[in-house]
Amino acid sequence: MINKTNRRVLIASLVGSSIEWFDYFLYGTMAALVFNQLFFVSGDPTVGLILAYASFALSFFIRPFGGVIFSHIGDRIGRKKTLVLTLSLMGAATFAMGILPTYQAIGVAAPILLITLRLIQGLGIGGEWGGALLLATEYAPVEHRGLFGSIPQMGVTIGMVMGTLALWIMNLLPEAAFMSWGWRVPFIFSALLVIFGLWIRKGIDETPEFKAVQESGDMPKLPIVDTLRYYWREVLITIGAKVVETAPFYIFSTFIVSYATTNLGFSRSATLGAVMIATIVTTILIPIMGSLSDRIGRKKMYIAGTVAMMAFAFPYFWLIHQGSVLLLVVATVIGLGIIWSPITAVLGTMFSEIFDAKVRYTGVTLGYQVGAAVAGGTAPLVATALLSAFENSYVPVALYIMFTAAVSLLAIWAVKGRIQQPAVN
């Protein structure tokens, strides 16, 4: 039975995570649609797009640093205080993007300032995910840990739905109005969401497991040192397991926006609509998959999703190349909505179960964010570069998706008995 306190904790972890990812995904989509024209100005449109995607990737490499900074605070001072800091930092950077002058107004200072704000976003999100996850899992009853751990993961897709919906509404404006001021509105509006998120988190206490560590006095002075000294294998496992969860996600959600509109002739509205429908589907399925993992096990769910991801790589591109909006939607729903959901639903809980509470914030954050930096932020950039190098053939991109699945299968094989068995049979 989920009590009142647990419900409040779940809402707090979900709301904050959703806001963080709403802010974050705005940039990813704008990189494909706007920033390559207004900030990263180049005579060659492909070069402009690659520069915009490079700025998208750059923040992924700052995320591990943000993770180290804020996970240190989280393991030493507390989960709640850390989450307030990360949400405030990210919200301020996103709002500032909405009022930033473009290249046409202030020249080269515009992309420099935009990249700086993007790096600040990366620092914030680097510490947010681990805290939201632990807020949920460390309050969870053992028999519902998979369900609780999946709730913060819903924030990824809810944030993306909010971001996509906001852009879809703004896209109804005339092109000139959208490029002039319409794209700014979601960034500025995010300030209201941040205020709401901080209010929701105000009344949440520290997690029982963190309190137990505090009372025991067994708190490492430098959690990052203890993590790398005693838990380096677990960190490597989480990095590898993160690869298939993050790279295909950005292929299906971010790269597809420019690929479908530029290479395949789909409208911007149709492409954003397909992504939005798929994210709604996966948002519904994530808690179902998380609850199912409490019955059949995290590892089985993860492997099933990873194998399916590998098998769907080529069919995905074949479907979207048929030129049908319906098949574009079907392909996106299958890949992002159905196959991806069991992978992401169990990922956080699986990570939390292989680290001790005293270094758990640092361990899960470090592995997750390094994996995201290696495979997530680079995914649209790699895919675009592969298209350019192989004359717009999708075959190398499909092989890249299959490669990410193979890496993660190898990592999950190394987990062996570390993940907790299902509590309900």
UniProtKB/TrEMBL annotation:
Could you tell me which Pfam families the record lists for this protein?
A: MFS_1 (PF07690)
**Record carries keyword Mitochondrion:** no
GO cellular component terms attached to this protein's record: plasma membrane
Q: Which residues cross the membrane?
A: 21-41, 47-70, 82-106, 147-169, 181-200, 235-257, 269-289, 301-319, 325-351, 363-387, 393-415
Gene Ontology MF terms in the entry:
symporter activity
Indicate the segments forming the Major facilitator superfamily (MFS) profile domain, all copies.
Answer: 9-420
**Keywords annotated in UniProt:** Cell membrane, Membrane, Symport, Transmembrane, Transmembrane helix, Transport
Q: Which PROSITE patterns does this UniProt record tie to the protein?
A: MFS, SUGAR_TRANSPORT_2
Against Gene3D superfamilies, the record matches this protein to: MFS general substrate transporter like domains (1.20.1250.20)
What InterPro entries does the record point to? MFS (IPR011701), MFS_dom (IPR020846), MFS_trans_sf (IPR036259), Sugar_transporter_CS (IPR005829)
The protein in question is named: Putative proline/betaine transporter
**Record organism:** Chryseomicrobium excrementi
